[in-house]
Amino acid sequence: MSSKRIKRLAVFYPFGDFNNPKCGAAIRVNYMVKLLSSKIEEIRVMQRWNKPFSKMDNVRVESPFVKEESIPSRIFDKTFRGLSRLLKNESRFNSEEMFLRQFLEPYVFPEFKRSVQELLHWSDAVILEFPFWGRLIEKEIRKDKKPYIITDHDFLSSHINFSPTLKHLVKNFEIKTLKNATHVVSVSETDSSLFYDQGIPSQVIANSTDCIFWGQEFPGDPKLYLKKRGITLPDNPFCFFVGGSHNPNKIAVKDILYLSSLMNEEGDPSFVLAGTCSTPGKTSNLISLGRVDSEILLALYKACDIVLVPLKAGSGSSVKTIEAMAAGGSVIGTTVGFRTLGLENGRQVIIENDIENYPGLIRMLLKNTSLRQSLGHEAKIWAFQMDYRRIFQTYFNLLGLPAMDNKELARMEEIDRENFSINMKKHVIGV
């Protein structure tokens, strides 16, 4: 590794949502860039082509222009569709083919390759999010021996189940790319073990969130704020679940629908769902809101009586679980919902895997205000250690930079806490 002081960092992100982060990967990369920008003079983020540029302070987000309707692009599309049909003939098939497309597509656009080369020449160090663009990057990296980190948000090939050939191809690209990095970052111990089995040591830097944002006091009555935003909550207590369109979240929604059918006694709570895990709608004791913004989500966390996380599958840590705990919620969930977090049943959360036992637990918890308060208090204390400002300090070490000392970290947290408070008050008053 070069001993050169890192002043210019290139971050490559293969999707187009960096400036408007909604999914977990985009949010994670935004947090990482924000933290690293406190010690690195210039950061340039390259996202997928033909997206808007932006600049804030010392961070520039750029996106190369490419001719997506060019002859090489049309040839690639036709060839890839043919390959997809061959794979479909081999077995059942779904959108998992996009993993392979992401590895191959960058070679189609010479404009993109030139932009990558220019950014690599400019930089002192490189972070690649997901391995898709790695084969383009590593050729240039070898020449200069720059620090080169790949964060693989999932062991991609382990999620391919419908085509052995596709699984083999993606695994081959993924493993070869990761082996050329100076450091590989995984997001869970499970993924780290899978990488290790392939001869790839990795540093675990878990998914995290902004616990200062989610832990702030809500300025005013959250239910009144939600009503002004067009969301009328039930008058009775309610349990809350939020999740994206990931299949484990959709399975959890089915369990919550079943749970709502069991809880129709007087004094039983209603249920509120948010996120793309469920289409907007309403029944006698359940409301599904669909996608909501972060201010509404914060208000929902503060207004609800119990947060449910009844997940049956998933890898890595659940960011939504950490958010709920940071907000001081009383959380009931499964072992999977609290995976990798090392929580203590009955102290920070309540852990129960059998959905049939949830009605009794919910009724007990609604009657026991002191237990709810205790769970919320302990959850908030625990969540603070999972804040991205703390978890992502490891990136400094991997880049050969000193991590923040306690004084620097406390100052950053205090500034963000003040800014969040000011902005949230302005937002709530303005509604």
Walk me through what this model shows.
With 431 residues, this protein is an alpha/beta fold. The protein has three domains: 8-204, Glycogen Phosphorylase B (Rossmann fold, 3-Layer(aba) Sandwich); 211-386, 3-Layer(aba) Sandwich (Rossmann fold); 403-430. Helices cover 45% and strands 13% of the residues. It is built from 17 helices and 15 strands. Strands 3-4-2-1-5-6-7-8 form an eight-stranded mixed beta sheet, sandwiched between helices. Strands 11-12-10-9-13-14-15 form a seven-stranded mixed beta sheet, sandwiched between helices. Helix 12 links the parallel strand 13 and strand 14. Helix 3 crosses helix 6 (164-179), helix 4 (110-122) runs parallel beside helix 5 (134-144) and helix 12 crosses helix 14 (369-384). The radius of gyration is 23 Å and the shape is globular. The termini are far apart. The model has no long low-confidence stretch (mean pLDDT 92).
Question: What is the fold's blueprint, element by element?
Answer:
Blueprint: E1 8-12, H1 24-36, E2 42-46, E3 54-56, E4 59-62, H2 71-90, H3 97-104, H4 110-122, E5 125-129, H5 134-144, E6 148-152, H6 164-179, E7 183-186, H7 189-197, E8 203-204, H8 211-215, H9 222-228, E9 238-242, H10 247-262, E10 270-274, E11 281-282, E12 286-288, H11 294-303, E13 306-309, H12 319-326, E14 331-333, E15 350-351, H13 358-367, H14 369-384, H15 388-391, H16 394-398, H17 406-430
Parallel strand pairs: 1-2, 1-5, 2-4, 5-6, 6-7, 7-8, 9-10, 9-13, 10-12, 13-14, 14-15
Antiparallel strand pairs: 3-4, 11-12
